[in-house]
Specification:
Strand content: 5-15%
Number of strands: 7
Oligomer: single chain
Structural class: alpha/beta
Number of helices: 13
Shape: globular
Distance between the termini: 57 Å
Helix content: 55-70%
Strand order of the largest sheet: 3-2-1-4-5-6-7
Largest sheet: 7 strands, parallel
Length: about 325
């Protein structure tokens, strides 16, 4: 009896949520959306997708090639801008151009998508400069871009969409990537509470593994090899040559197989966060996110730690 009641409640919840999330905002042609990291991957696809839907897209790219390609693929309504999220001067310059462009309408949404995944390695392979280089993009860049246009977002009573990761919930790897994503989660949550009285919605995207530059096996393998070559001999002895070989094997075999090629699963979540009348607070695209990483993040530390340690590559010293 109770089982049927619980099943009924779950079904009712999901049906109700589905109907609640269908309505989209009107007057898309009057809504400006600023997206960072549009050269490739999620940002590139989102810019093209929102352009087709009729939004006024401001696509920020790091390279001229990225800008040129988007202009070829999209309508005349789309505007491209060069942006280096690590540079305060660049962030301020783009914000000033956006302010002039949007006028009294304000900025409907900013999507903080720009991010990098290297250098990534065990913590004792890295220096503080390695941490700083990634945090400047993945965390400080998100904060700088958001604050630069926040008055325009408040003016439009719009949205801030931050792209974090399932690795903002659990830390299976060393290095600055998970640190940066935990930081994005914290910034997202504090900003959401701060902006609620102004009618501004702050949403978070937490993707699992998808085939982008962030999970590119060639880029990650090159990073591991480069860091290994720079290590002091005593650290190499601690880990052993087998550790390096197995790390590279995991990147080329497991990561490549796990990563989902359907990037639209993430882009559709981003689009919903931008355009739905009732967006979700958090989105977790990817079956690995839903069925493994997020449940793992809710488990007691002793259990999650045990599961992760069972999958960890053994180091040379621990095998002696």
């Amino acid at each position: 009896m109770y089982l049927y009641f619980l099943v009924g409640l779950v079904v009712f919840y999901y049906v109700h949520r589905w109907f609640r999330e269908q309505p989209r905002i009107p007057d898309k042609k009057d809504k400006y959306v600023y997206i960072t990291g549009c050269d490739t991957g999620f940002g590139n696809l989102l810019a093209r997708h929102l352009d087709k839907l009729g939004f006024q897209v401001i696509a920020a790219c790091y390279t001229e090639k990225g800008e040129e390609q988007l202009r070829k693929w999209c309508s005349e309504n789309l505007t491209t801008m060069h942006l280096d999220v690590r540079s305060n001067e660049s962030v301020t310059k783009v914000a000033a151009m956006i302010k002039e462009k949007v006028g009294q309408r304000g900025l409907w949404a900013v999507v903080n998508n720009a991010g990098v995944s290297v250098p990534t390695a065990p913590c004792d392979w890295l220096t503080i400069d390695d941490y700083k280089s990634m945090l400047d993009v993945n965390l400080n860049g998100v904060i700088a871009v958001t604050l630069s246009v926040l008055p325009l977002i408040k003016q439009a009573k719009g949205r801030v969409v931050n792209v974090a990761s399932v690795f903002g919930r659990v830390s299976p790897t060393g290095g600055p990537y998970t640190v940066s994503k935990y930081g994005v989660e914290a910034f997202n949550d504090s900003l959401r509470l701060n902006m609620a009285p102004f009618g501004v919605k702050v949403l978070c995207i937490e993707p699992g593994f998808f085939k982008t530059n962030v999970t590119d096996a060639a880029i990650l393998s090159k990073n591991i090899k480069m860091l290994w070559e720079k290590l002091p001999q005593e650290v190499r002895d601690d880990y052993g040559e087998e550790y390096l070989k197995k790390s590279l094997a995991i990147l080329t075999d497991k990561v490549a197989k796990i990563a989902d090629a359907d990037l639209m699963k993430v882009v559709n979540c981003m689009e919903h966060a931008v355009s739905a009348v009732q967006p979700r607070t958090r989105y977790s695209p990817g079956w690995d996110a839903k069925l493994f990483w997020l449940p793992l993040s809710y488990m007691p530390t002793c259990i999650s730690g045990y599961i992760l340690s069972k999958e960890a590559i053994p180091i040379a010293k621990s095998m002696k």
